[in-house]
Every structure is written in C-alpha cells, then in structure tokens.
Amino acid sequence: MSDFPFLSVLTGAPLVGALVVAFLPRTKPELAKRVALGWSVVVAAFAVALWIAYDAGGDRFQFRESYTWIPAWNAKFTFAVDGIALVMLLLIAILVPLVILASWHDADASKRSVPVYFALLLALESTMIGVFAAADVFLFYVFFEIMLVPMYFLIGSYGGHQRQYAAVKFFLYSLVGGLFMLAAVVGLWALGGKTFDWQSLLSAEFATNTERWLFLGFFVAFAIKAPFFPFHTWLPDAGGAAPAGSAALLVGVLDKVGTFGILRYCLPLFPEASRWFAKYALAIALIGIIYAALLAVGQNDLKRLVSYTSIAHFGFIGIGIFAFTTQAGTGAVLYMVNHGLATGLLFLVVGMFVARRGSSLVSDFGGAGKLVPALAGVLFFAGLASLALPGTAPFVSEFLVLLGTFKVNEPVAVIATAGIILAAAYVLWMVQRTTQGTLNPALKTVDGMRKDLSLREKVVVAPLIALILLLGFYPKPVTDVINPAVQATMQDVVDNPDPAPAVTEAAP
Amino acid sequence: MDNLSLPKIDYAAVAPMLILFGVACLGVLVEALLPRSVRRSVQLVLALAGLVAAFVMVVLQSDKRILTAGGAVAVDGPTLFLQGAIILLGLMALLLVGDRSLEHGGAFVAQAAITVGSDADRRQAGRSQGATEIYPLALFALGGMLLFVAANDLLTMFVALEVFSLPLYLLCALARRRRLLSQEAALKYFLLGAYASAFFLFGVALVYGFAGGVEFGTIHDAVRESDRSTVLLFGGIALLAIGLLFKAAAAPFHVWTPDVYQGAPTPITGLMAACTKVAAFGALLRVLYVAFDGAAWDYTPILGGIAVLTMLVGAVLAVTQTDIKRLLAYSSIANAGYLLVGVLALSKDGLSSTMFYLVAYGFTVIAAFAIVTLVRDADGEATHLSRWAGLGRRSPLFAGIFTFILLAFAGIPLTSGFIAKFAVFGAALDSGEAWLVIFGVITSMLLAFPYLRVVVMMWLSEPGESTPSVSIPGGMTAAALMIGVVATLVLGVAPAPLLDLTANAAEFVR
Question: Where are the transmembrane segments (chain B) (predicted)?
Fold first, then answer.
C-alpha cells in the first residue's frame, strides 16, 4: 500500500479533472458542474484514503516519492507529507467539493464561460495540494508561484465589484513575495550545497548574516501570503472581490501556505535566524491581531469584514508558531485547520446572503433573520465558531496557542487575549446588524430573501458544522497526527520545546 | 615572400556560414534572372532549405573544437550552440517573414523608393506583391551573425558585425504599412549603428596598440604579461563594449531599440529580438571570456553597473508604454540586463546559463511577435494597447497563448522564462555577485506590472468598439507560433536536455 504513488496522484488528479471540465462545451454548464463536483468528491475520497493509510506514530515524512526532474540542478519531483501537511491536504480535499457546490450559480451571472470557472477551481486545488505535498524546495516554489494564476483569473474574471483592481493587487503582492523567495531559493541552492532536497538542506550550515537574509527572503514571501501585518492590505480587497467560494478557498487554504511555509521552511532550515527574528515576528503578529480586529469592527462590507477577521486569526497562528513550544505550535497548526473550516463556513454563508440580497453591505441587511431564519442561524453559528466559543473547534486551538505561549512569554499571551474580546465585538455586532433587530423594509422587496436554505446549501454547510463541533469536542484525531511533526519542527529550533509549567519550577 | 601560403581552412567547420552566404548570393541571382511571379516561392524555398542545410551541418560537427582559417574563426561548443540557436530562431523568423496570408502581398513593401503617401504608394500598398529581396538580405544577416559568434579575432568580428548589421538596417525600412515610421526607424538604426561600429573599430585599434595583435589568444596573453600602459587596454575594452552593448540593447546604448522595434516590419522585429540578441551576447561572451578574462576584476563592476542600469531602464520604462511593440522592446532591454547578469558570472555556469537564456528568450519573443502580427484591423496591425482590450473575449485561444507568453516573460514557473532566470541568477550568486541578483529580483517585480497590465487588458476589460479580432494565421505563422509556444512550455517543464546541452557546450577554445 505504501508503494502506491499517493501524493503524485492526489496532485495530478484535480489537474486532469480541470482539463476535462475546461473542454466541456460552454453550452452545457450543468454537465461541467456535475463533472467538477464528482471529480472533487473522488479526490476527497482519495485524500481520506491517504489519511487512513498514514501512520500517526510512524516516520515524520511518509508516502515519499522522488522522480528526476532537472539533474543539472539536483531539482526533483519529491513529494512527502508530515502530519502538518497531511491535515492541510485533507482540509483542501474536504473544502473543494463544498466550495464547488456552494459556487453552483456563481458563474451563471457572468458573461464568461461556466466550465472554465469550475476548471479553475480544480486547477487551484491541484496547485494547493502540490504546494503542501512538495518536499523539494524548488518544487515547492514552482507550486507556490503557479498557484497565483488560477486564483488571479478566479478573482479577475468572475469576481464582483472592483475585481480587476483586486486581482492585480493580489497577483502583484504575491509575485513580489515570490520573487523575494526566489532570491532566497537561489541563495539556498548556491550556498547550501547545490541541492533542493529538504532533508539534505536541513544539515546545511550558513554564516549568521547569510542565514538571516535567506530567512527574511522566505519570511517576507510567507508573511505576504499569510498575510501578516503590514503586508495584509491585499487580502480585504481580494476577499471582498472574489466570488464567495473562491474567497473561502483563498483565506481557508491558500493563505495557510504562508504559515505552513514558515513552519516547514523558515524554522527548520534557519533555526538561528528564527530565534533571532522571533521577537519581531511576535510583535507583528500581535499588531495584526489588534489592528485587524479593530478594522473589522468598522467594516460595512461583509466580505471585507470576514477578510479582516482572518488577518486577526493569522496573528494568533503567528504567535503560536513563534512561541517555540510544542503546545503553542500544535495549537497553531490546529488553528490552521479550524480556521479553514470556520472562516470557510463564514465566507460561504456570507456568500449565500450576498447572492440573495445582491449586495454585501451590512447596511443593506437588518433583521434578515425574520425572513431566512435557518440561514441566519448558520451565520450565527459560523460567527461563534469564528470568535472561538468553547465547544467549537477554533476554541481548542486558540486555547492551546495561548496556553503554550503563556508558559514562555506571558505579556504576549496577555495582549493576544485582548484580541479575543475584540473578536466577540466584531462578530456579534455583525450578526446583530444583519440578522437581528427590526426588519429592513427594503429586504422584503428582494425576491431572493424569501428563500431560506435550499437542499444544496444545506449539504454545503452541514459537513462543516459537523466537523467544527466534532473537532471542538474531540480534536484528538487531528492533534495526534500533527503533534509529532510540530514537536520535531520546534526541536529543530529550540532545545526544549516542552517547558515544564512555571509552577513546578518554582517548587523546591 | 616565398613562404607566404594561404591558411588552412576546415571547410566543414565553416560550412554553415558558407551555405548561408552561398544561398544568399543565389538569392541575388534569382532576383535578377527569374520572372517576378515565381521569385517569391523560389526565394522562400531556397532560404528555408539553406537554413535547414546549415543546421544539419552544425549538428553534424557538434564535437568539433578547433581554430580554423588562420585562427580567425573558432568552432567550439559555444560557437556551435549559438550558431544552431541563430539558425533555428532565424528559421522561425523567416516563416513569419514569408507569410502572406495575413495581408495581401505580405508585410513588406514592393518598392521602398516610392514617395510615401503618393498615388503610386497608395496603389502599391493596396495591390503589389511584397519585395522578395528580403530573403537574401535576411540570409546575409543570419550568415553574418554565424560569423559574429565564431569570430576569433577582433577584425573578423568587426567584418561580421557589418555583414549582419547592414542588411538589418535595410530590412527595417521595408514595412508595407506606416512607411514613414519604418523609414525613420531604419535611419535611426543605421546612424546609431554606424556610430557603434566606429566605437568598436576604435576599440580594436586601442587593443591592438596594447596587445600587438587582434587575435583573442594574443590579447589574452598580453593581458597577463604585457607591461604596456593599461590605459590602452581599458580604453579598448570600453570602446569594444560600447559596440557590443549597442547591439545587445543594453542601457545607456539602448535608445534605438523601442523606435526600431516599433518601426520595423514585425517579422523583422522578431528576427532582431531573437537572433541579434543571440549574436550580440555570443560575441560579448567570447570577448569577455576568451580575450579579456584576465582583466575581469577591473571591468566587472562597470559592466555590473550597466547590467543594473539596463534592468532598471527596461523595467521602469516598460511600465509606461502604450504600444505593444514598444513594450516588448523595453522588455527586451530588461532581458538584456538579465543576460548580462549571467555573462558577469564569468564562470562555466555563467556561460551555459546565458546560452540557455538566449535560446529560451528567443523562442518566446518570436512567438510574441507572431501574435502581434495577428492582431490587426483594416489599417494593418493594431499595436496600441487600448485596442487589445477584451481580446480574450473575442479570441480566447490567441489571448490565452499570449497570456502564457507574458507569464513566461514575467518568469512564472513552468515556463522557460522562469528556468532561464533561475539559471542566470544561480550562476551569478554562485560567483558571489549577489548584488546583481538582488537588482534582478527587484526589477523582475517592476517588470511584472506591464505584462500583467496586458493580461488585464485582454481578459478583464470589456471589448470595445475598436477591438480588432485576431486574424486566422497562415500556415507559416501558425507554425512559428506553435514552435515558440511549445518550446516555451517544454523548456519550462522539462529543461534538463537543453541544460545538459548548454553545460556540455560551455567551453571556449583559445
């Protein structure tokens, strides 16, 4: 079973599906949708098989495959996943079919080809899987860059208001980050022994200054991608303009490449530079939490609001990573998964509201719960999950992050906690202004607002709600998988990533 | 005088050049002897056959490493590789030159001497068949380029420079549409090119004064051992470099490029962007790596400054362009900067990565100009960018292909542009030229913007009233376009064979 080329098949399958869908006749949009959905479900089933075949207590990297690519540079098609990458692959595979289902009518209104829209979604899935599955720096970079192309067209061709501006901004920001990383990748190759193999590079030694420059090259790319303050300004534009499904993938998965990259590349490859940079990283993560949350409170556009909330959440993930304890790191990775589920759900629900109302402005809603009670209920649930209410999955991860950080860095943990209060403010206020209170009379005249959740929409939200609750009460299946990988990662950076609680230290 | 004898010539080694010059001379005879009606097809077949034969000769002697013709010509790895590249790219450009299905009579004017705008001119623009002298002219130019990259002394190099430049000046002036622009471009190119040649010749004189000879081997020895004033040497290098950098379109000697690229008939622009660049950098590589490598410490910072300036000028000015041909011209200037980064690595990797870059860029740029020839309306090619708005809606296939080409220029992975950029940056960093790489990365960011603007224009804007549709390409344009696009993709996905080829070829004989 372990000889089966799981990862290359998983990476390639959506791409094949994308090609098939793209060449379906434009006049048969329904066929294209069904093929795309069916294909993504097969991919999801395949990812679940991967999950089952993965041995949580086994080697750190599993399903290793390696094929010659460019011998002159030692660049190879090397795939391998650790626990962190595995859960991200599973998240992608689960989200994509739901996003396709949720986007069923997204492309209908545009004058553009419907099959191409779904082909782009599948192509995006392929590049996202590739970026998490790669265990070769060059291959990772290749996926990192081409990931931009389908997303660019998803935003630019099928987005809403200001889509051109948002698409170009998204592309340029990411490309700038990518080029910084290119310089660092070239440097890593030239100075690290002419190899791109992740495991060989682990043992490469660099001069202190060189290591810091290389670290920064990677970090800037990942910080833009994540996005961390102050590189975050592209996300509200992109998230606001993208179709709801693409936006869910954008913040749910695509941005995780940033934090994943920090965990996989910045920390183990440049441990000294990581320790040196940690205080700055913690600072910008903290600023991000507070600053983005404050901006989120003031937003009147639902999609932009949700984008800002996720910038704040990425601050928590950043803190969890740079606290350098296994507990906080596990919390951060768990947060990456849970944020994908919760914010993905939030974006999809907001998308359902926007599709009904034809506007994403908070002020165009008001009392919508009276017309569409079930939909409003789901929004409320997604909001609660997003603010990390106990019982929902994000709570576990946020708690782990703060607990793990508190042990080594109390002030940071305390300030970050303030972000939780702000989170309550922006979420509850958003829910209140859109669904509670007196009914906005304009809503009654909108046809779409009379229909509550359709069966299709129920199928979209139900699995996400179930997963959020399940992982809220029983996160063990996920933490078991990510814990060893996080521990190994943190071990690369600091000697003792599992500090004993302060109380026992004080005991005689 | 008894022992004066002709130098031994390895005819097989110089056969590619002899074939091209011979076929070009035959082409002149065809012009004189055959009736007008059959000239075009005879010329085209003759030219294509000549190029194919020359390419076969290059391939047949791929293992040859010798000096011949009394040391005037060096046939070695880089020579053969670059000659092969010039011939292949020339073949593609010639397919564009020969296509007449897009416009009645082709892209070239029938009689260049008729006054622009006169009645006779309007008549010939509408009805006449294009000139057929262009085929021998193009072959002379390509033959000169082959000699240029093989030249092993400065005088041979100068002769080759003139042989390939003069036909190009003429070819620039022969556009069927916008003839004034075309003639102005040719005049500009000729005048500035003549200055550049003069600088080059003066540089030869200074170097002769320093080294006592013009052969690269002699110069190489002199740089190591001569106790003469280095003023002569550095003055000579500077003046030679001006001549070569002019042809390569490096700043501050780039000013002709946008005007000439815009004014020349588009197939000729493609020829210049691909083949001239290969020839110019081939010669630059040989001069720096073979003759002056001993003085590398002294000229690297200055040429590095020129590389940085070239990348900056190309990238910054490309942002403001509104004409697609001018945009591609500035992009070609910026690419000259990236090529210089590879050249200045001054190592085997630098040599092989530069050669890879030349080939990768050449295929892509010819494909780009092939697309430019296709987007047209009643007045010929629609090169103003505003006219390209919404092209993706009108002709998704061609807009898609052009998008792919632009992504290659921007260096997105899975295109040859990315691999090429990675190769030159890697070579430069390996040689400790990190500052060049940093500027390369910064300018790449700037340069992404104009490309992206075209993509936005094509896909995200609504088609306007004046958006032309894309003409269905004739067989030859389609062939050139497909070769270029496939090469861009293949060199991006599976570059290993060409990388190996350049690595094996990367050794000069001295």
Answer: 12-34, 41-60, 80-98, 132-151, 157-175, 187-211, 231-256, 268-289, 301-320, 327-348, 354-375, 396-414, 434-460, 472-494
